[in-house]
Amino acid sequence: VGGKGGVGKTTVASSLALLASNNGRKVLLVSTDPAHSLGDMFDEEIGDKEVSMGTNLWALEIDSEREADSHISSVKQSMKALVSPKMYIEIDRQLDLARHSPGAVEAAVLERVAELMSLGGELYDLVIFDTAPTGHTIRLLSLPQVITAWVEGLLNHQGRSKGLGTLLDSLGKDKEKSSDHAMLDFFESERKVQRNKEITRILRLRRDKFHEARQLLIDPDAVGFLLVLNPERLPIMESKKAYDALCGFGIEICGLVINKALPDELTGGFLEGRIKQQSYHLSQIAREFKGVRSIQLGLLEKDVQGIKMLKITAGMLAAAISSSKIL
């Protein structure tokens, strides 16, 4: 579930999760937004581990900073196993810098998302991701393709370097070396072989993990993206950009939720003006997203917070979904 900030993504995701769980499906609701609001929505404390929110419903909020720290720590441990102790300080320095580089947090979050997509499908009937605002989510969803290509490049480069190293070693061999020197060369060569094997194993593991995430994302039978927007100019523009980007990635757009729509029967000069403008924007949505199924959720008198209000929005979703067959 995604869209522009403030359009009601968390409301829709939470209501959808509650609706599905009430219908007997085991549901995991996950927030990938660094500015989490699931806990506020349910009036419950939700952390980085699954928390039961009621019958058939669990929730968690991915801690992006913690994921990044954990990822860097894991990389440090792997690298230190491959080099001499005198290199440890330099490894720490370089990776501490990498921790704050662009994309580091997104890559770490994506690893957790990939894990939840893979394992979640075995433990739950439905996993719903309440995503960050559009731009952040687009960057996140583009990473499997980017990282897979990057790792493939590293593996190819490593293969070429290995071949060149073997050639240079053979050209530089001294046939007059003592048996002691020959033995040292043998152990050094064996150490390099084992190190290269471990590097290759780590790179392939990472490549396969993101490749699996990519394959899941583009499988319309497994994953669908629900765009939430308001019948207003800016949300429509941003949603269209997101729609085009997601289609470019091969991700199925299963429908639109047009949230906070004003009822047509409202009267009064100000409200009639707003309804007229809304009518224009609804027509624009129909043009821009031709062929995409959509439902409308009306603007409520009160803010949606707590199970009581979520049950109301879940009921509205149920009625709208049954008439549109959006999901």
TrEMBL record:
Transmembrane segments: none
InterPro entries membership: ArsA/GET3_ATPase-like, ATPase_ArsA/GET3, P-loop_NTPase
Domain ArsA/GET3 Anion-transporting ATPase-like: 1-317
Gene Ontology molecular function: ATP binding; ATP hydrolysis activity
Family from the record: Belongs to the arsA ATPase family.
Protein name, per record: ArsA/GET3 Anion-transporting ATPase-like domain-containing protein
Native organism: marine metagenome
Phylogenetic placement of the source organism: unclassified sequences, metagenomes, ecological metagenomes
